[in-house]
Amino acid sequence: MKLLYLLFGFITFFAKAQENFVQINGSTNVNKFQCINNKFKPEAGAYTFSDKNLPNIILKVTDFDCGNRMMTKDFQKILNADKYPDMIIRFINFIKTQKSIVAVVEVRMMNQSKRYNIEFDVENNRLVGRKNVKFSDFNITPPKKMGGMIVVKDDLNLIFSLATKI
Predict the structure, then answer these.
(1) Can you tell me the distance from the alpha carbon of 51 to that of 94, in angstroms, rounded to the nearest whole number?
(2) Cα separations (Å) of 103 from 49, 62, 94, 107?
(3) What pLDDT, in 10s, does the model give residues 68-79?
(4) Where are the domains of the chain?
(5) Of 124, 130, 129, 117, whose CA–CA distance to 164 is shortest?
(6) pLDDT at 7
(7) Alpha carbon of residue 146 to chain centroid
(8) Which residues sit opposite 27 in a β-bridge?
(9) pLDDT, tens digit, for every residue of 13-61?
(10) Buried-state track 64-90, b at ≥16 Cβ within 10 A, e below 16
(11) In whole angstroms, how far apart are CA 70 and each of 18, 33, 77, 143, 159?
(12) What is the pLDDT of residue 1?
């Protein structure tokens, strides 16, 4: 049985290493959740980053998968996927340093935009960045379920992993 878990973990890691994804991690007062969108890719096979060519990434909100049908449906409802089907990630500025890459990234969803400074690392021709954000950054009130017994926390961890040509 342990071998199956190890094999599943390796396959999951290998699959994530081969794809672009945006992952949103959050928690409630009861447990944690993880919603991933890996159904997007650049036209050229990898994203390019230069002064003249910074990517805009359009994510379909309905492409996020939280690993549980009910959680996925709730997540898409929170983001009002019917009215606002797209989440747009636009790179505004991109600066290479000796150790990493610092970018100004605009995240737009539900007619709300927020800019973040995000530090990215280059790992195996992938640009990987993490940023703590909040539902409230986008004027979203974290939901409550079961009459307030389950409360979604405002804090989220956003992870980007993009195949790149740098």
Answers:
(1) 7
(2) 10, 26, 4, 12
(3) 998 899 999 999
(4) 2-165
(5) 124
(6) 39
(7) 27
(8) 32
(9) 444 444 799 999 999 998 899 999 999 988 777 787 776 778 889 999 9
(10) bbbeeeeebebbbebbebeeeeebebb
(11) 27, 12, 10, 14, 22
(12) 45
Q: How far is CA 143 from the centre of its chain?
A: 19
Measured CA to CA, the distance from residue 117 to residue 119 in angstroms comes to 7
Q: Please state whether beta strands 155-165 and 21-27 pair in parallel, antiparallel, or not at all (unpaired).
A: antiparallel
Q: Write the DSSP symbol of residue 51.
A: T
Beta-carbon count within 10 A of 59 CB: 21
Hey, what are 53's tokens? 């060519």
pLDDT the model gives residue 166: 67
**Is CATH 3.40.920.10 the classification given to domain 2-165?**
no
Look at strands 112-122 and 126-134 and give their pairing. Answer: antiparallel
C-alpha–C-alpha distance, residues 119 and 77, integer Å: 30
